[in-house]
Amino acid sequence: VFTLALRQLIVAVNKMDTTKWSEDRFGEISKETCTFIKKVGYNPKMVPMVPISGWCGDNMLEDSPNMTWYKGWTKETKAGVVKGKTLLDAIDAIEPPVRPSDKPLRLPLQDVYKIGGIGTVPVGRVETGIIKAGMIVNFAPTGVITEVKSVEMHHEQLESGQPGDNVGFNVKNVSVKDIRRGNVASDSKNDPAKEAASFNAQVIILNHPGQIGAGYAPVLDCHTAHIACKFAELIEKIDRRNGKVMEQNPKFVKS
């Protein structure tokens, strides 16, 4: 989880009813969990530990009358110390991500439909930037350029599609054969998306039977694109816990 850049974590210790609401057992599990998450790279001071019983509903939404010994959780954030008691409090204390609406538009296409009376409607999720009617969009890597007539989400017309929105947008004079799943829509006037012959990637090897070196040819799934590629060279090996370089130009890496 930490390796995949998920920096906010909540530990809910479930089935407290089976331990007869034991404070000692909760303390024991919390201690073990803290040691484990610290090894992985988390700071235990930033992780709320919440004893709950999903079956009985204790400490999920409201204070539990069965765990009067539990005084609540605290966690350190950039804004300061946050306190709470229940699992719901801990979920509410998660800091929402900033939506990158100020960046150039990038919208990978999930599908392209032909709708009678409307025309060609590409569908996808806005990753960065915004899309709105009247915008001249460019589809990479094909280079097709067209105007957006309208933007919709869940059959409702939108003024603009924001990052995270799954939208469909109607485009002028483009056939369903001209664009397809995997293409990326971008604003032709603001840093349009381009084809890349090569790029540097940070790759996590979770479970692989052999060793991986230069010349390895996997199939890359990037957003909605599905394409064969080849590792030209291995630049460096990184410690996944802290991001520090362990070895320059390794010949091979393995899981």
What does the model show?
By secondary structure, the protein is mainly beta. It folds into three domains: 11-93, Rossmann fold (3-Layer(aba) Sandwich), CATH 3.40.50; 106-187, Elongation Factor Tu (Ef-tu), domain 3, CATH 2.40.30.10; 212-253, Translation factors (Elongation Factor Tu (Ef-tu), domain 3), CATH 2.40.30. The protein is 9% helix and 33% strand. Strands 5-6-12-9-8-13 form a six-stranded antiparallel barrel. β8 (136-140) and β9 (144-153) form a beta hairpin. The two termini are 16 Å apart. GO terms for molecular function: GTP binding; GTPase activity; translation elongation factor activity. It is found in: Cytoplasm. Pfam families: GTP-eEF1A_C, GTP_EFTU, GTP_EFTU_D2. Residues 119-184 form the Translation elongation factor EFTu-like domain.
Describe what is shown at a glance.
The chain has 255 residues and is mainly beta. The chain has helices at residues 23-40, 87-92, and strands at residues 11-13, 49-51, 73-77, 80-84, 107-115, 119-125, 131-132, 136-140, 144-153, 156-158, 160-161, 166-171, 184-187, 212-213, 219-222, 225-228, 236-238, 245-248, 252-253. The protein has two helices and 19 strands.
Cα gyration radius (Å): 24 Å
- The dominant shape is extended
Query: Biggest sheet, in brief?
Result: 6 strands, antiparallel, barrel
Strand order within the widest beta sheet: 5-6-12-9-8-13
CATH topology type of the largest domain: Rossmann fold
Number of separate structural domains:
3
| Unreliable stretches | none
What is the CATH C level class of the largest domain, in words?
Alpha Beta
Strand content: 25-35%
Distance between the termini: 16 Å
Class by alpha and beta content? mainly beta
CATH superfamily placement of the largest domain = P-loop containing nucleotide triphosphate hydrolases
How many strand elements? Answer: 19
| Multimeric state | single chain
Number of helices: 2
Identify the CATH architecture of the largest domain.
Answer: 3-Layer(aba) Sandwich
Mean pLDDT: 91
Helix fraction, binned, reads under 10%
SSE order in H/E notation? EHEEEHEEEEEEEEEEEEEEE
